[in-house]
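Lab notebook page, bench 4
Experiment: in silico fold of construct C2
Operator: M.H.
Input chain length: 378 residues
Purpose: comparison with the prior construct
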Amino acid sequence: MADKRWVIWCRVVDNFGDIGVCWRLASQLHHNYNAQVTLWVDDLATFAQLLPAVANVAEQVLEGVTIRHWSATPALDDAPADVVIEAFACELPPLAIAAMRAQQPLPLWLNLEYLSAEPWVVDCHGLPSPQGGGLNKYFFFPGFSAGTGGVLGEADLPARRAAWGPSQRDAWLHAQGVTAPAHFTVSLFAYENAALPALLEQWAASPTPINILMPQGRIWTSLQAVVGPLQLGQPLQHGAATIYPLPMRPQAEYDALLWSCDLNFVRGEDSFVRAQWAGLPLVWHIYPQEDAVHLIKLDAFIELYLKDAPADAAAALRALTYGWNHGDLTHGGVTHAWQSVVAHWPALRMHAQRWAAHLDALGNLAANLARFANARLK
């Protein structure tokens, strides 16, 4: 794709998922496939929390990617795009659509959809939608099964993860100030959650020490309602649990946090996918939507993810995941969801490693996008 120019449009609707995915994609297309990439984004302040080098300017080049501020009236350049990605149905500005229609040859227009494990995704992946004047918009669905676009992950990610051993883990934890000995280490990155007090009590009553690593974020509100004010870098003892309030991590450093834990609570889409690549058990806090539409997506993923897991281990993780997302750890009559997950952790870890290998076999999203584009731009 060295001679192709890709343009990605991204609106930050809420939190970090939209820009997190778009930046990873832009970076991978440039570094792994030598594409020329321009990323339009409307919220530079949120972007800067993931990539601290981002400045509040109209245009900048970082790590080889041109980043442009999507303002109310974006000033388009004259360079034609070969591939235009409308991320998550963000609705391109009319000027951009007019520019595409004026191009010869016409560019490839892709609507990059939200990640889903729902079965219908396979049937819709890659379908065109006529937009007039010979211009088509193709729907590209990330996913977890053959016939989808796969998920984002650098080509060398499995090798880097495999090289992360006990010495690297211990050194990283020590550098973060995590010094309390622990039998189990958990990362907790989530939205506000009414289930947290019950989970905290289970951690406090653990028969063995447990470390809780909590990057700064929305879940802090729920935690402080129980334990009081948190201060970065100041560990807090809560029974058998030691809680470590950590700063929000730049995106490039998040993998080390995941790899250094035994189980990861994650949220949204970007951290969710990275936790799967980590090959460790995870609990996903899906972004809540009106009318509980999000629970349909949660059901689809859990059933697919746990389909080949040992029955008892699958039941434990399913109970904890549903309890966490319903804000009630007793949901479905499960009263010891946490203890069950810990008891079945070896089997869940083995299953998580197999799942990461499955994702690798699907091909990563950037590679599949490049292949799709090449086939249509001959």
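Observations: The first strand starts at residue 5 and ends at 10. The chain is about 40% helix and 20% strand.
Next step: discuss at group meeting.
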